[in-house]
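Treating backbone geometry as a discrete language has practical consequences that deserve illustration. In the encoding step, the backbone of a single protein was reduced to a row of integers, each denoting a local shape. The amino acid sequence and the backbone structure tokens for this protein are reproduced below.
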Amino acid sequence: MARIVKVGLIQASDAANDGNLPIAEIQAQALAKHVAMIEDAGKKGVQILGLQEIFNGPYFCPGQDPRWYEAAEAVPGPTTEVMQALSKKYSMAMVVPLYEREQAGVYYNTAAVIDADGSYLGKYRKQHIPQTNGFWEKYFFKPGNLGYPVFQTAYGKVGVYICYDRHFPEGARLLGLNGAEIVFNPSATVEGLSKYLWQLEQPAHAVANGYFVAASNRVGVEKPWNLGKFYGTSYIVDPRGSFLAVGSEDNDELVIADCNLDVIEEVRRTWQFYRDRRPETYGDIAKLLP
């Protein structure tokens, strides 16, 4: 019997869309909006659901305002507890990206992974942190230090890459080597320089590594930063790079696709990239400076 998994992605605009409100109020509005969408996903039979990068608030990195440190929380913590209850209610595994506070002054861009029975499986911390105009992430996040873990859920093996990570094929390969069958990439990316890469890089990762990729992006223009339009188009691709589902550019939306995980075996029997790779020749990657 084929291993068919119903995968879902939520793309949404910022509920409050007013970054000057108290942070607790902004997060409460975002959480309420997403809970309704998560409930919808559960009722539609989604088995693994991915949320967008730092889902419970705006993308605050266009500025460097220290008040946003208040948005960070423990992982696991209060928001993951809410998500665990929803996961258990709908027997739905979830990838939940949050702003993590490890201790005073130590913050990460993190995604918690929750299994279908509501159990917390672990977390991934974003490895590659940009620092450029409009994306001042090094002000808010330390680079990840947990490697490239893969989590065994009730429905399949899940890996996570977060936004800017997608530009680095090394971690994408490590997720495959660690056994990932579906890699989620929650993102916050706007129109401009990198839009042409959005539907190019990650399908290439899927093909090069023989797994599914589920990439989410938020929608709308967020105030007061007005960085640009978050263009949505969240999508799910198979190990051949074929698009199974694509969201709109403008709308709050639940993007769903049925993923046949048996295709991974089929594709890897044709393209023997794991057999034919030559890691003994790649040592200079870790030695050479740019």
In short: The mean pLDDT is 97. Residues 23-43 form the longest helix (21 residues). The chain has one domain: 4-278.
